[in-house]
Write a structure and sequence with these properties.
The structure holds two protein chains of two kinds. Chain A is mostly helical. Chain A contains ten helices and two strands. Chain B has two helices and eight strands; from the N terminus they run βαββββαβββ. The chains are: A mainly alpha, B alpha+beta. Chains A and B meet through α6, α8, α9 and β1 of A and β6 of B.
């Protein structure tokens, strides 16, 4: 378990109150250069403190730079969840960009509906002019976005889009949904 | 049935380079004569598991992934989701009849559940 800056603030506040029983949260907030409402939320772990604020407040409290650095690192470790969320959001943005950038995705969908279709990525590559790797990357993306399902050896079930424009619109809607899911799953407290 | 690790998979930004590297280093044979054009790795040993190489999308890092054998892919997905996993690729039947799904474990590590034909 890493030392948290909010715990350090709590200790500092208690020490000041031990010396002066009339020492208030407002006075402590003023000493830090913030408002008492914000500080109250931090002390109750309802709000997180940014690295910039940690450095600024630690300086005001004359906390040793080494100790401050430890709190900064701890805060960055706590930020892991936010980092994962950002990575996931970037991933879905890249998925959207990839669908918009080329025709391979739509071509897979289109060919999968033709009578001569063969569930063979090498065959699809020949028809679409893409490499087998490009087809496989696009195929995995279609599966991730739920734009294609493969329910059996020869049962490729593509999304109901009737043309490329509609397909792209549907793909972007799926990306938006995935991003929304990612954001709601990893909601984090306000970051000061 | 127990759930053994059946296969490893290298997700690579440059599958040809990865194939060349590992086959040169370890003498592994790479065979992509299958409907997915999937680069199957044959290590040449009965010990351990065999593997494969799959192309990574541009935004993904190169990494290795485990394929874990299950009796029922859909049931395995449901159990994993109850334990906090997130489904990435829903149950999918591969051209040769194997069925698989890819998930992220609660720490974000991707893995696959796989039922051989």
């Amino acid at each position: 378990m890493h030392a948290r800056f909010s715990d350090r603030l709590q200790r500092e506040f208690q020490q000041r109150r031990a010396k002066n029983r009339r020492y208030s949260l407002r006075a402590f907030a003023a000493a830090l250069g913030t408002d008492h409402s914000t500080l109250s939320q931090v002390l109750r772990n309802r709000r997180r403190v940014s690295v910039i604020r940690i450095r600024a407040w630690a300086k005001r409290l004359q906390i040793d730079p080494e100790e401050t650095a430890a709190y900064v690192i701890a805060e960055q470790l706590i930020d892991d969840q936010a980092l994962r969320r950002d990575t996931e959001l970037r991933h879905w943005s890249a998925e959207a960009a990839a669908v918009l950038a080329g025709r391979t995705h739509w071509e897979i969908v289109r060919w999968s509906r033709t009578p001569e279709f063969r569930p063979d990525c090498r065959w699809i590559a020949e028809r679409t002019g893409a490499t087998t790797d490009e087809v496989n990357v696009a195929l995995a993306r279609l599966l991730r976005l739920g734009l294609l399902e493969i329910r059996g050896k020869d049962a490729w079930c593509a999304c109901p889009a009737e043309n490329e424009k509609e397909f792209r619109r549907l793909a972007l809607a799926r990306v938006r949904q995935r991003k929304s899911d990612a954001q709601s799953r990893t909601a984090i407290p306000n970051h000061l | 049935m127990p759930n053994p690790v059946l296969q490893f998979q290298i997700i690579s930004k440059d599958p040809d380079q990865a194939a060349a590297f590992y086959s040169s280093l370890f003498g592994w044979k790479i065979n992509s004569q299958n409907p997915l054009g999937y680069r199957r790795i044959e290590t040449g040993s009965a010990e351990g598991i065999q593997g494969g190489i799959w192309p990574a999308p541009p935004q993904a890092p190169t990494f290795a992934q485990l394929f874990i054998g299950v009796d029922d892919v859909r049931e395995a997905v449901a159990s994993a989701e109850k334990l906090g996993a997130k489904l990435l690729i829903p149950p999918t039947v591969l051209p040769e009849g194997d069925e698989m799904a890819v998930l992220h474990d609660p720490q974000g590590m991707p893995f696959a559940v796989w039922k051989r034909q």
